[in-house]
Amino acid sequence: MSPEPAFAPVSYPVLRDAETDAVAERARIRGHAEGYATGRRAADRELAAERARLADDAERRERQGREAVARAVAALDAARARVEALALPALHTVDASLTAAAIELAEAVLARELTDHPGSVRDRLRNALTGLDAAEVVAVRLHPADRDLVRAVDTGPAHPIAADPALAPGDVVVELADGLLDARIDAALRRARAALAEAAS
Question: Domain Flagellar assembly protein FliH/Type III secretion system HrpE: where (predicted)?
């Protein structure tokens, strides 16, 4: 055996008590909470920055879209103006001619349809009375031949029917307690001509 001293590890007892453990636990919890809060703030900053970037991108794309639409509308307006400058004078001339021809044709068809056709006269009379309160109607005036046709076919409406030689065949004038309902053919054609002329101008 060697006379030299041998070294051996020494174990020191750990002294722990409840207070030391509580301090350590509180430090651990505080460290965890501070770390979580720091991480949360960093994540919130990153999220806010990403949202701002996305909002900027969306606004830029929307602005570009509006500008593209505005350019397209301007191009369409310019094209429409060029087409109108070329076509409208000719179209107005053709439109006026077609309108006049359509009115003349309508007059001819109406004159033919209203001649000796009791059904047409009854239809005109029914249309003139549609929507009127029976109590408002004082009398109905028709061309004498139309009055005779209506009376020959049926008893007609429950209103007095008077013959008016000033009216043309197919004309109907309804006398109301407070005025007249003018359902004459020529009056309707005048209104149609005026409406077409106004639409064309």
Answer: 91-190
